[in-house]
Amino acid sequence: MKRVPYEPNRGSSCALSCYTMAARYLLSDQNITFEKLAKITGYHKGYVVWGGTVWAWMMEQGIFITDHDIIDYEDIAQSGLSGLEESVSAKDFEYYKKNTFNLEKSMKEMVSAYQHPNFKYIKGAVSWEDIEQNFAKPGICDVTLDMDIIDKGRSGGHRVILLDITDTEVVFHDPNKAGNGAHRRAPKHLFQQALVNLGDVELCHYSLSS
Questions:
Q1: What pLDDT, on a 0 to 100 scale, did the predictor assign at position 148?
Q2: Is pLDDT above 80 for 156?
Q3: Cβ of 172: how many Cβ atoms within 10 Å?
Q4: Can you give the pTM of this predicted structure?
Q5: What mean pLDDT, rounded, does the chain reach?
Q6: What are the φ and ψ backbone dihedral angles of 152, each rounded to 5 degrees?
Q7: What SS3 class is residue 150?
Q8: DSSP label at 32?
Q9: Domain residues of the chain, as ranges?
Q10: For residues 138 and 25, what is the distance between their CA atoms, to the nearest angstrom?
Q11: Does the pLDDT at position 154 exceed 90?
Q12: How far is CA 152 from CA 18, 146, 147, 155, 173, in A?
């Protein structure tokens, strides 16, 4: 099982919490804190955090990132927010508009990160095989899932850090607001259903080698 320091959710910050955990795991000789990465991202509590600026910073520290997602960043580079609107469902687009502090700026930062030489982007739906293959590589992975499948009443689109995958269960850090989500365990079939139920799954792999 991967030994990863745990970071709770500070308020709509599950992504930033996962970026913090990944950076701490790979850059253990640096004093990585949530607050440091929050400053880099321009984090506003209660708003969605996109990875652009913090990923760019991580890559400048020597981290290689592979991202699997359905969003068409080439189209966004050409067309701006209309490119994002065409990539995702109407419901998700409205959510991003409402819950991102500055969506246009965030998209420009994402496009810039995707153009970094340490970045690899794989556009398309994420399969369970993709998750297992990336987890087996050196480094660390985070993935989004519908948390309501595992905890009734939780909202979907939640990002977690993968710690272990066995024949029967998945172990993960759940950056929840209660701060008690370290080393959570879920039956493998239930975790897989949480991915299927979300639909728009994002898988990100971080490593010190390309």
A1: 93
A2: no
A3: 25
A4: 0.93
A5: 93
A6: -55, 130
A7: coil
A8: -
A9: 14-207
A10: 12
A11: no
A12: 22, 10, 8, 9, 18
